[in-house]
Design a protein that fits this description.
By secondary structure, this protein is of the alpha/beta class. The protein contains 7 helices and 7 strands. Keywords: CBS domain.
Amino acid sequence: MTTAKEIMHPGARAIPATETLDRAAQLMRELNVGALPVHDVNDRMCGIITDRDIVTKCIAAGRDPSKVTCGDLCEGTPRWIDAEADVSDVLTEMESHRIKRLPVVEDKKLIGIITEADLARHLTDEQVAEFVERVYAGA
């Protein structure tokens, strides 16, 4: 059984919901990532902020990224997976919610994130094709 922990990109960093989008963009640049999990004051994950969110929901909307917080843009229920979950559970979670990034938690702490690139490195071509079809169908 291949687990989420085995295929994840380790060392994911989260950002507080109270942090501004300009700081989120700076942290993304420093870490060379396109998304950051967002946590509340109790260190509970409350969403994910992406570089695309910053551009389309803030900058393109004429808002100031130094005044808009990560929490302002977080929408919906955050999705995550336990580190010991089987890769089939990872695929089910990502496909059923049509998400491209999935935080991995262990003992209620963020330890990594699974992206499409991680899936491509660890799955068969057939599994990757099925994932792409399910996540991007109708997108």
